[in-house]
Design goal:
The protein is mostly helical and 221 residues long. The chain has 10 helices and no strands. The N and C termini lie far apart (57 Å).
Length: 221
């Protein structure tokens, strides 16, 4: 039951945010008495914190999976694979993007451990994609680029219903075009960044951009 409550709470918090969600809404969705919810999770703030930590762990697991697949590949291949896998994953769990964006832009009186883990999470993304070699010492320029990349994905996923209606397209075509658009924007941008020699190895020195560096990138004729 505790896991079921967390699953439903994750979806409802993702749809309505912290302030728009009540514990009664969650209990009614599951079909339990509200006292059962309090027994397992305590107050709404405690349940919300558990949801935030749950999505953080899910994202971290996915990033480890990506890291294992793209390790040693060229930059363009790493980016292509990471965009494919992360986009598919987030479209299957859109509440993750909604919760992150709610956290960014909506003030709550409920503090969250996620706020303190955001820098760590950004480093995990950079490391999993082979863009950084050191998880603990990430230069500001790389952190900004990671934020820009992930925010594009979050917005495409969180806004999918609005954008699909605006573009008069199906979900299947929308998802594919999101991937194509992200690759069109991000892969050349990171390749240019790599060629400019602006990457750092985590100690403040200019370096390469991951394990696949030194390999000549294939370009379209």
């Amino acid at each position: 039951m505790k896991g079921k409550i967390l699953e439903v709470a994750r979806r409802i918090f993702g749809e309505y945010g912290f302030h728009g969600t009540t514990t009664r809404m969650i209990a009614q969705e599951i079909g339990i008495d509200i006292s059962t919810l309090y027994y397992h999770w305590g107050e709404k703030g405690d349940l919300y914190e558990a949801v935030i930590l749950d999505i953080y762990e899910d994202l971290r697991t996915k990033l480890i999976e990506i890291e294992q697949i793209v390790h040693g590949k060229s930059l363009s291949t790493r980016m292509d694979t990471a965009i494919e896998m992360m986009t598919d994953y987030l479209f299957l769990s859109p509440e993750i993007c909604n919760l992150i964006l709610f956290r960014y832009f909506t003030r709550t009186r409920q503090p969250s451990n996620l706020d303190f883990r955001v820098p760590e999470f950004i480093s995990e993304i950079a490391f999993s994609m082979g863009i950084a070699k050191d998880r603990k010492h990430l230069p500001l320029d790389i952190r900004m680029r990671m934020l820009a990349m992930m925010n594009q994905i979050y917005n495409f996923v969180a806004g999918q219903n609005f954008f699909m209606d605006l573009l008069k397209t199906t979900r299947e075509d929308y998802v594919q075009n999101v991937k194509d658009t992200l690759k069109f924007i991000l892969i050349p941008a990171f390749a240019q960044y790599e060629r400019a020699g602006k990457h750092h190895d985590g100690n403040g020195d200019a370096g390469t951009m991951g394990e696949g560096d030194g390999k000549k990138e294939e370009t379209a004729p």
